[in-house]
Amino acid sequence: MDPDTWPTRCDPNQLESAILNLTINARDAMPAGGRLTLATANVQLPSTQVGPDEFLAPGDYVKVTVGDTGTGMPQDVIERAFDPFFTTKPIGQGTGLGLSMVYGFARQSGGFATIDSRIGEGTRVSLLLPRFEGEDLPGPLVQPLAEVVAGRGETIVVVEDDDVVRTLATEALRGLGYDVHAAATGAEGVRLLNALGPVDLLLSDIGLPGGMSGKQLADAARASRPQLKVILITGYAQEAIAGGLLAQRIELLRKPVLIDVLLRKVQDVLKSA
Ligand SMILES: Nc1ncnc2c1ncn2[C@@H]1O[C@H](COP(=O)(O)OP(=O)(O)OP(=O)(O)O)[C@@H](O)[C@H]1O
Ligand SMILES: [Mg+2]
């Protein structure tokens, strides 16, 4: 990282999730290993065309680049990579939303994103974010986690198939002092629960691949741990089956999940009798 990187102003959670998305793409592009690079740089841009009739103001930008030495992308993939739902990954492995979210975040922050890729050599995806020119830096845009008290090593099992959400939730909970074990499917979650001693909380997505839903996982887990605390993450489409869960002492979190809302919910549920 360039220590003299200019300040920029954007949502730090979204920036983190963008970098994580790019890092996971880089990992996927290097199945046999390779080199992942993260770099920042200050750049001065002339007026830049970012859409058919869209131009970005000339000026100072902070460039954040994630690079890999992986497969690279053919021209037709580069052209469509930022499109929502465009993916070359097998069904069930990619939703094709990663790069479109990265691009949306960059545009919404007053910047843009670029792809520089060569087949067999690798890929660099860069976010260009406008330099923040104010005198003093404003406070953080996101409320600090003031009331979130650190965990005391409580054991939490996280089951989520989305790599980005699972990694963010796991890291954030670990950072607060919880003992976190993560799985990507219901079956993996069952194995984890069987292998672990006492578990304080199960945090699971409702919609999981592989035939077992988060609700079924919770029921299976409660068969042997009737007191287990459960938080299920629901998407809009699953709202209908969520009815009645509260009666079963199952807490719900609605997607998209904001990390600080998640941390607060975990804390509340662990505190509850
Ligand atoms: N670093 C990279 N190297 C090679 N190809 C890439 C790279 N990043 C993205 N791609 C290509 O662009 C496509 C779209 O990427 P995007 O992140 O939007 O979706 P995805 O990774 O397929 O799925 P998701 O991110 O939703 O899990 C990928 O399927 C892949 O073909
Ligand atoms: Mg991706």
UniProtKB/TrEMBL annotation:
<dbReference type="InterPro" id="IPR003594">
    <property type="entry name" value="HATPase_dom"/>
</dbReference>
<dbReference type="InterPro" id="IPR036890">
    <property type="entry name" value="HATPase_C_sf"/>
</dbReference>
<keyword id="KW-0597">Phosphoprotein</keyword>
<feature type="domain" description="Response regulatory">
    <location>
        <begin position="155"/>
        <end position="270"/>
    </location>
</feature>
<dbReference type="InterPro" id="IPR001789">
    <property type="entry name" value="Sig_transdc_resp-reg_receiver"/>
</dbReference>
<dbReference type="GO" id="GO:0000160">
    <property type="term" value="P:phosphorelay signal transduction system"/>
</dbReference>
<protein>
    <recommendedName>
        <fullName>histidine kinase</fullName>
        <ecNumber>2.7.13.3</ecNumber>
    </recommendedName>
</protein>
<dbReference type="InterPro" id="IPR004358">
    <property type="entry name" value="Sig_transdc_His_kin-like_C"/>
</dbReference>
<dbReference type="Pfam" id="PF02518">
    <property type="entry name" value="HATPase_c"/>
</dbReference>
<dbReference type="InterPro" id="IPR011006">
    <property type="entry name" value="CheY-like_superfamily"/>
</dbReference>
<feature type="modified residue" description="4-aspartylphosphate">
    <location>
        <position position="205"/>
    </location>
</feature>
<dbReference type="Pfam" id="PF00072">
    <property type="entry name" value="Response_reg"/>
</dbReference>
<dbReference type="GO" id="GO:0004673">
    <property type="term" value="F:protein histidine kinase activity"/>
</dbReference>
<feature type="domain" description="Histidine kinase">
    <location>
        <begin position="1"/>
        <end position="133"/>
    </location>
</feature>
<dbReference type="InterPro" id="IPR005467">
    <property type="entry name" value="His_kinase_dom"/>
</dbReference>
